[in-house]
Amino acid sequence: MSDFIIGFITDWGYLGIFLLMVAENIFPPIPSELIMPFAGYVAANGDLSIFGVLVAGTLGSVIGTTAWYGVARLMGIERFTWLCNKFGRFATLSEDDIDKAHHWFEKHGPLAVFAGRLIPAIRTLISVPAGLAKMPFGRFLLISALGSLLWTGILTVAGLLLHEGYHAVEAWVDPVSTGVVILAVVIYIWRFVTWKPIKDIG
């Protein structure tokens, strides 16, 4: 994965950064923790500008996360609830869970979206409740852009400052990302095993 990302950015420059960050937000296993620090390293060498790297990374991140927002918004809370009821055990969600999450997000939505853009493995998922809650698109876009800019900026500057030691960023952030994913899997398994339907559905 590392060699592919490095080669892709080397060959495609800003467009490569943009495409990788779009993909990272649609397919979370692609790590921004390697994409942006290497982009910062390339900028430190003078092959790319730091401004261009930040624009490409942030724009790709926002477009990628907006795709999930759009899908969730088109689906709507009613259809999403129906699917979770229909495939309840696999979704590990009940209608009551969805109602509680929906009300919580309506109250704390902007902060949740901004903070979610900074948390590994959550950056993509936070777009779904935003879409289901029908957060105004302009607000979602602005908050996502600010959170994405901060996240890509931190990783880019880290790669810029560390220069050839940019892999140190991945070495530090990657275990955190892995830990979050493992925790999510453990919670999913526990909820799958203990899930009970609230009511029968047709």
TrEMBL record:
<keyword id="KW-1133">Transmembrane helix</keyword>
<dbReference type="GO" id="GO:0005886">
    <property type="term" value="C:plasma membrane"/>
</dbReference>
<feature type="transmembrane region" description="Helical">
    <location>
        <begin position="140"/>
        <end position="163"/>
    </location>
</feature>
<dbReference type="InterPro" id="IPR032816">
    <property type="entry name" value="VTT_dom"/>
</dbReference>
<feature type="transmembrane region" description="Helical">
    <location>
        <begin position="175"/>
        <end position="193"/>
    </location>
</feature>
<dbReference type="InterPro" id="IPR051311">
    <property type="entry name" value="DedA_domain"/>
</dbReference>
<feature type="transmembrane region" description="Helical">
    <location>
        <begin position="50"/>
        <end position="71"/>
    </location>
</feature>
<keyword id="KW-1003">Cell membrane</keyword>
<keyword id="KW-0472">Membrane</keyword>
<dbReference type="Pfam" id="PF09335">
    <property type="entry name" value="VTT_dom"/>
</dbReference>
<keyword id="KW-0812">Transmembrane</keyword>
<feature type="domain" description="VTT">
    <location>
        <begin position="30"/>
        <end position="159"/>
    </location>
</feature>
<feature type="transmembrane region" description="Helical">
    <location>
        <begin position="12"/>
        <end position="30"/>
    </location>
</feature>
<protein>
    <submittedName>
        <fullName>Alkaline phosphatase</fullName>
    </submittedName>
</protein>
